[in-house]
Input
Amino acid sequence: MYKHILIATDGSELAQKGVAHGLELAKGLGAAVTFVTVSEPFPALAWGGAMAGYVAADELTNYQESARKYAREVLEKCKAEADALGVSANTLHIENKAPAEAILDTARAQACDLIVMASHGRRGFGRLVLGSQTAEVVSLTQIPVLVVR
Output
């Protein structure tokens, strides 16, 4: 049925449920998995004064380094879980994109035939039923999406 499953994660506890569910599905189907995590663009800051550019540059560097470290930790954990289950998996960290856009682009580029993701991310501004990124993926994709609550 499904041969290549994209599992999106932000490293949150709820996203981990999506990872576990997606891996069990992949194992049962003999499907390969691609894990993706996304770092959003550095937020635009309203810095003032003569030193604003220097402060923003330092903050940008710190943000990028922290995002890369966090993504590496999240993806290494996912890969280890896949390996333990005998599921073939690769990992991708997409930087400077909105999560929904990156998930959709990755699913197309990797020729995935199913997207698995949690109903909400770690941000507290989620929608009542689905998180905003999940809702966007569901509404814009051409392939099935399994939403894990």
